UniProtKB/TrEMBL annotation:
InterPro entries according to UniProt: DegV (IPR003797), DegV_C (IPR043168), DegV_domain_contain (IPR050270)
Superkingdom per UniProt: Bacteria
A Pfam family annotated for this UniProt entry: DegV
Entry keyword annotation includes Cell division: no
PANTHER family attached to this UniProt entry: DEGV DOMAIN-CONTAINING PROTEIN DR_1986-RELATED, DEGV DOMAIN-CONTAINING PROTEIN YITS
PROSITE patterns reported in the protein's UniProt record: DEGV (PS51482)
Protein name: DegV family protein
Keywords: Lipid-binding
Role of this protein: May bind long-chain fatty acids, such as palmitate, and may play a role in lipid transport or fatty acid metabolism.
Lineage, opening ranks: Bacteria, Bacillati, Actinomycetota, Coriobacteriia, Coriobacteriales
Biased composition (Basic and acidic residues): 1-10
Chain segments carrying region Disordered: 1-26
Amino acid sequence: MSSSDTDKNIEQAVPAQEGADNAQASQEAARLGRAYHRKSNVRIIVDSCADFAPEVARALGVEIVNFTYVMSGTEYADDLWQTMSAKEFYDRMRAGEVATTSAVTPGHYLEVFERAADEGTPTVYLAFTRGLSSSVDAARQAAEMVRESHPDFEIYVIDNVCPSAAAELLAIEAVHQAANGLTAKELVAWAEEARYYVHGYFTLDSFDALARGGRIPPAAATVGGKLDIKPELSYDTNGALTLRGMCRGRKKALRAILADFKANYLGAEGGDEKLPMAIVSADAEKDARWLADQVRREPGCSDVPIIYSSVGPVIGAHVGPGMVALLFWGKDRRESLSFTDRIARKVRGQ
């Protein structure tokens, strides 16, 4: 997973700020996407749960499957904040509105995959992880239907096992590898290994959204709020959420994220210090900027590209306003498995 010499010219994508700084961040993010996007013989499809910075998504040239969500009885497409701004969405959640989501149907995927089959370019879909959604199963059903109607067409569906902007980082480098000459089949093998090297650590402002979604008991959310408990979370090798710790106060949770970054980021040691990082937040720009400033102070990180984006409404519906996350390439996440988890993976043939 090395970066080519051309990547040395990639400019830093910094956290968005007010006015002119916001426009500058958009331009720099777009330049980052263009630096990785070159003509290849592989069509790469992703989905909106990768929480792309819109400028990066457009510049990369990947096709995005838009998931949907429902708010106050109206269905919306998760279209990278074109229909509704992140600020409006999270303000509505703060005011008590509930956003709900559901798995994508095989029919929705079938339309996307049939268009790809008609065009004929071998296609790889980096799918939102099964650890959080059954949508990937629908995608695999649709891919099988397309193979039956187009037996000579190459199409692959991969569980990215890394949600939110971690999937954005995986997609960016997948585009890079395809541009460097990997075939679709080779890109599948690359992605199935590379996905375990993308880390993500995040915290939430409250447990309310998790309680509404049935992921924790309402009583636990109430107690957590009264005690100012902030969780630090990540995801396991299956893409499911994991609780790493409970912190008294927001700042301690952010510092816990930084500690995990220091423990797992390879930087120059891994030979890929120029691979981009991502900071994503659910209308929590102040904390996102603070986190970026702290990362910049770490050895070798002063000029690493950082992509800033907003948590999309599909994931945002479950985590609520105030989430902030740091995502980066680092050590093999499988190395941190306990010996019992290693046994379980061996039993599953993974």
